[in-house]
Amino acid sequence: MVVVKRNLICGMDIGTSHVRVIVGEVNTDGSINIIGVGTSPSGGLKKGVIVDLDKTVEAIAHAVEEAERMVGASIPSAFLGIVGSQVGLINNRGVVAVSGDDKEITEDDVERVLQAARVIALPPDREIIDVIPREYIVDGYDGIRDPVGMVGVRLEVDAMIITGMVTSIRNLVRCVERAGLEIDGMVLTSLANAEVALSRDEKELGVILIDIGGGTTEIAVFQNGHIKNISVIPVGGDYITNDIAVGLRTPIQTAEKLKLEHGVALPSLASNEATVELAQISGKEARKVSVAELAMIIEPRMVEILHLASRELEKMGVNEPLPAGVVLTGGVSLLRGIVELSEQIFDSSVRVSQPGYVGVKSPIYSTGVGIIHYIQKAHPYGLRDYRGSRQMLPGLFNKIKNWLVEMFD
Ligand SMILES: Nc1ncnc2c1ncn2[C@@H]1O[C@H](COP(=O)(O)OP(=O)(O)OP(=O)(O)O)[C@@H](O)[C@H]1O
Ligand SMILES: [Mg+2]
Predict the structure, then answer these.
(1) How far is CA 297 from the centre of its chain?
(2) Over 80: is that where the pLDDT of 272 sits?
(3) Whose CA is nearest to atom 28 of ligand 1?
(4) Which residues have CB under 8 Å from 310's CB, separation 6+?
(5) d(CA 280, CA 286)
């Protein structure tokens, strides 16, 4: 029997409708295999925010158990997704003198300059959750993506600081800890989604990424290779389900099932002849509803959600279509006809994105899989360093363990 060490990353997406736990294995060449998936309905969140700790803990524990069964090992810790409504973006600069006698910039110098960028006055209800280097500047030469190995005296970084609301972070952390896991770190969900959904060219050219989930719609704008802005509106697919339940007088579960199996965003794509049998509430007779009738209920709500997203874009100063168009992800992007409807509303090309791995090929997994990609990419010098703490919040993440699982093959 041989003992092999495997470098595993767990990404946890605690969403309004589902908790999804994804386990990825990072190979020595940096490629990723998805080796575990766990899903559990949430129940404890409203509009992306935890409102019931017990229910959330239960959902996390279920999803983790399921993923553990697939992986064949226990999951000691996870990176969590944090939704844009709970975060703020601040630009800041850091400057340090290059330390080595030979003036060659090392990983240590980069780490120090990122630390310098973290020095910023924050209100007491906010904490830093991530620092994203936009570009490095060496002795005045800007636009450098990776300065390690270059020679210089003065190293600067232009960075984006992501801050989170202390209370919501603590609730998230508490739930995960109560489910028996430690926290490795947090990733803004839009950045996680972008890792799966967007190409480097799209981010350079300018692109809009919209994640339409159960309770929230998160809109992120990327330009010149970086995230420019995010906005979250508290509407999502659950509203569509509600409309169907009210409109057809069915229980929520029936409405959800109808939406998933027969839902269409554009009535013109629905056939008038196709009908679905409905069991009535309180034992009344079954009746039939046409798919077109269902589409007429879905369309106005979908239009409203997309209009609200479009209004948010205007508020962010995006008044014209961006060159790389709109990319949709999240569960609602599975709705038939949503691409056509979104193209009309955004007057732009629209596509749906999903992870490319077997077993998680659906936009519902974009955030969980994206967290793994983000962490792998953001820390090319090794996860061990990351988990070792430097990026972590001093108070919250002082118990980080390394997760190099020893497994028997
Ligand atoms: N095939 C489908 N057609 C239409 N809607 C769908 C489909 N599959 C999932 N949905 C809807 O997508 C929503 C869930 O999406 P997702 O799993 O991305 O949400 P979440 O991440 O849990 O929630 P949030 O991001 O809002 O916190 C639900 O409203 C669900 O009904
Ligand atoms: Mg989501």
Answers:
(1) 29
(2) no
(3) 214
(4) 345, 346
(5) 6
How far apart CA 190 and CA 257 sit, in angstroms, is 28
Does the Cβ of 238 fall within 6 Å of ligand 1?
yes
CATH classification (class only), 3-85+167-190+359-408: alpha beta
Residue 275 C-beta-side C-alpha neighbours within 13 Å: 7
pLDDT tens for 95-117 read 999 999 999 999 999 989 999 99
Q: How confident is the model at residue 398 (pLDDT cuts 50, 70, 90)?
A: very low
Rounded CA separation 249/244 (Å) = 8
Residue pointed to by tokens 């992986």:
71
One of 3.30.420.40, 3.40.30.10, 3.90.180.10, 3.40.50.300 is the CATH number of 200-352, namely: 3.30.420.40
The sign of the dihedral angle between the CA atoms of 390, 100, 378, 85 is positive
**Token pair recorded at residue 400:** 């980080």
Cα–Cα–Cα angle for 26, 222, 387, nearest 5°? Answer: 30
Q: In this structure, which amino acid lies at residue 213? A: G
List the CATH code of the domain at 88-165: 3.30.1490.110
Check: CB of residue 63 under 8 Å from CB of residue 40.
Answer: yes
Q: What is the pTM of this model?
A: 0.91
Cβ 352 under 6 angstroms from ligand 1: no
CATH 3.30.420.40 in the chain is located at 3-85+167-190+359-408, 200-352
**Ligand 2 mean position, distance from CA 223 (Å):** 22
- State which ligand 1 atom lies nearest to the alpha carbon of 17: 22
Whether 259 is in the pocket of ligand 1, judged by its Cβ within 6 Å, is: yes
Residue 293 backbone dihedrals phi, psi, to 5 degrees: -65, -40
Q: What mean pLDDT, rounded, does the chain reach?
A: 89
| Tens digit of each residue's pLDDT (9 = 90 or more) over 194-245 | 999 999 999 999 999 999 999 999 999 999 999 999 999 999 999 999 999 9
- Nearest atom of ligand 1 to the alpha carbon of 215: 26
- Cα 143 to ligand 1 centroid, rounded to whole Å: 39
CA-CA distance, 389 to 403, in Å (whole number)?
A: 13
> How many angstroms does the Cα of residue 75 sit away from the middle of ligand 1?
25
Determine the distance separating the centroid of ligand 1 and the alpha carbon of 93, expressed in angstroms. 38
